Amino acid sequence: MEFKNDITDSSNLTAAKIAELENMKENLKRAKDDAMQSWLDSRPLIGELEKMQSELANARARVMKANTVISEQQAQIGTAGMGIKSTKEEEEKFHIIINHKSQELHKKQETLQTPQLTYEAIQLEAEAFATSAAQVLRYINDSEAEWRTSVSLEEKLVAKNNRDSAFKR
Predict the structure, then answer these.
(1) Is residue 166 part of a domain?
(2) pTM of the shown model
């Protein structure tokens, strides 16, 4: 009678372990699906990031060109000041141009801040995705280890049952 209870308990334990493994398998599948969806969701952001990086590089090139133009204009102011009687009028014109270019430069710098902040946000999301992927891998490894343990326990139980059957004969 006690042997029957042991077998029933073992069967219940095995069934419980199998149910637990199936539950873990389902959790792993959901985690894998979630990780895949996160990766798919991040792809447009990566494309947007690359586009913004290109725009940032173009804006920086324009800023450098504007700085070159400003430098050239400042040199012209110095040269014009020595050669022309109406130095003050020419200086005023060039100061207006410089102020205008500086305002444009300031506007461009403000425009550059938005892609930079977006880039930083995308970097944070990429780091979060990497962390999530690492967690998924950890869950997978843990589940595989638990599965191996469960299989080992099942094999031991079968061996014990076979041995017990052999002894009874």
Answers:
(1) no
(2) 0.31
